[in-house]
Amino acid sequence: MSDFESRPHSSAYFGEERDYWWNDDYLDLLARRLGLDRVGVLADVGCGIGHWGGLLARHLPANAEMIGIDRDPANVAGARQRFARLWPDLSTRFVEGDATALPLDDRSVDLATCQTLLIHLAQPMSAIAEMIRVTRPGGQVVAVEPNNLFNRMAVSSLTADMPLDRQIEEASIAMRLVEGRRRRGLGCEYLGDLLPGLFAAAGLADIRVWLSDRALALVPPYGPPEQQAQLAAIERWQREGSGPYDRTEFAADLAAGGADEFMIERGWQAMLDGNAQASASIAERRYHAAGGGLFYIVAGRVR
To answer: Are 197 and 204 in contact (CB under 8 A)?
Structure first.
């Protein structure tokens, strides 16, 4: 069993908030940069329920085909339903498959892409190699990946009032969590910064790198739908004990990152306390944050 088969991307992050990851005008620009109007077949690897593929498919020619591939049958079914509801006129098909053994022929697509897939793989080069294999010479491989180590240490309106020792402790926890996940074979959360070099090592040419221009701000009174979706996601994660509030995963990651039981409990309590402070500040309409992060788009051409 591959690392992708055994460590699927968490469905906890497939909520409405994901619909607001991109600005439409930036996607128009990205479509021009990538020449999506000349793509006949696009493969979306690790497609989830089709958030990324749906954004790109709208920029493809009318006779183009998009193929979504995901190892989780629930995601494949969800993607089919999502596309049937939102984009019924697009030519698409969704199949089950492993990112490290794609169910596609050699040189069968014009562009192979993924979004927040490679950060979850112990061996991301295996998936990159597969995307290269299925892409025709002259075609492109495009990956969108963050640096979540940086993103875990975001600043908000509460930061200035936080004691410096606590800020340092939270940064240490973030670093141990990220390193622990890497040691557990759950991927590298700062892969976005390494991706251009990995593309070069894989033999891709004409490597280009951009940053997404979207910031997911929270500004009182939190009226816009994207802010409401963010707040709803946080409430859902807390209620379900999922995403960043999965206590078992939190402890396992910190332990693999070298933390002892005392540090794990202290780190967990610090996160809960910080969330309680943020929630109280939001309720009082005082909390604000620009919500920026490092989210890379890396493209390379197949020789």
So the answer is: no
